[in-house]
Amino acid sequence: MNESVFQVANSTPLWIMAFIFVGIVMFQAIVFLRMAKKAAPDAGMTQKEVKTAIRTGFISSLGPSFAIAIVLVSLIALLGSPLTLMRIGIIGSAATESAAAGIGADAFGLELTSDNFSLEAFTTVVWTMSLGGMGWLIFTALFTKSLGKTQKKIEKKNPKTMALISTGAMLGAFGYLASDQMVTSINHTIAGAVALISMAIIMIVAEKADLSWLKEWALGIAMVIGMTSGYLTTFL
Amino acid sequence: MSMKAEKVIQQEFPSEKPNGLEAFHDRAHFWGRLTLFTLILMCLVPPLYMSFIVDAHPGWGPIFTGLVGYAGFIGIMWVLEPITYYPTLGVAGTYLAFLTGNIANMCLPCSVSAQKAIGAESGSRKAEIAGVFGIAIASLVNIVVIVMIIIGGTYILSVIPPAVENAFQFVLPAIFGAVLGQFAYKTPSYGLVAIVVGMAILFSPIFGLIKIVLCVALTISIILALEKNKKANA
Question: Where do transmembrane segments lie in this chain (chain B) (predicted)?
Answer without folding.
Answer: 30-49, 61-80, 86-108, 129-155, 167-185, 192-225
